[in-house]
Amino acid sequence: MVPASSGEHEEEPMADAAVPHFANDGGIDKIRIGAREFMCIGAKPPFDHPHVYLDMGGDDEKLCPWCGTLYVHDSSLKASESVPAEAAWHPVSAAAE
After folding, report:
1. CA-to-CA separations, 47 to 17, 53, 67, in angstroms, rounded
2. In this structure, which topology does domain 17-90 adopt according to CATH?
3. What is the pLDDT of residues 21-57, one digit of tens each?
């Protein structure tokens, strides 16, 4: 049974929102990022590959097994930041559309 709605829109956080996403539209070899746990999406939609969750663990770099982009951890960046800056991708939630 579904509980009755109060009529107010209750927005639940998306799991993806907590994990930074990065894209490599330029096809560059290496992207510096501030996160150790992140999603590689390949290129930005609609040309993205399946979104791959990657975790560097104790390492300072991680290669995306899907597109071959090398991600290098840079502690001077915030988790959602990258160099080049345009590699950081922020998914648009359905509520914002």
Report:
1. 20, 18, 12
2. HSP40/DNAj peptide-binding domain (2.60.260)
3. 999 999 999 999 999 999 999 999 999 999 999 999 9
